[in-house]
Amino acid sequence: MTPLGPVGWIDLLDILFVAVFVYQIMLLIKGAIAIRLLIGLVGLSFIYILSHLYGLRTLDWILSSFFNGIILILIVVFQHDIRRALSAMGRSGFFREQADGVSLLVEELVTSAELLSGKKIGALIVIEREMEVDNYLEVGTEIDAKVSSEIIMSIFLPYSPIHDGAVIIRQGKLTMAGCFLPLSRNPDLSKTLGTRHRAAIGLSEVTDAVVLVVSEETGAISVAHGGRINRGIDQNALRKMLKRLIHLKQKRWYLP
Q: For all residues of the chain together, what is the average pLDDT?
């Protein structure tokens, strides 16, 4: 074995570039789908090592060809996230924190939830984070409006033509309404959960979105995130939860 020479500054720079690259890739691969994909890649890597060690030539060749094109595969799978990240890097104020904007958004959402809950008006509010949700939506009416409790209330009133569905909040603005979300197929979910709650969980299983739900039957407020749902949340708990889930991920949205 050839002994390793001294590590120079070029080697350190090389390691630094690789570390930054890997870190940025890890920032991109978020959400339940990305996690499952990452676990799958680790499993395939383990199988590839075994096939190489035990001389399973056909399997070794197939997996070797797969891993030779893994970068291209990741680019195709995460093209939307990569495009969004590159676009954000080109905007001024990318690294600035805009906590005030997030706080205003949270307050409007909390007020909306309380008003809807008090009147027992069912609602689904999707707050998009790093992952785009467009690929998982059906129907929907495009809108372009500032997030306010008045607008959200008017959308979900029973006589509104777009009340039966979800609204989408993207980059701090209301962008779509009347959207239908994928229902969760998790067999372990409680049978008491209605369509709205299953839709909220379903979207949170495949994206990193935060989904706010107001029950039409009971007026109870729930929040779905990461494939799980927190039910019966009061006003203070809702405020804290939304600030924790949104603030850390979306500071760069709110540019002056």
A: 78
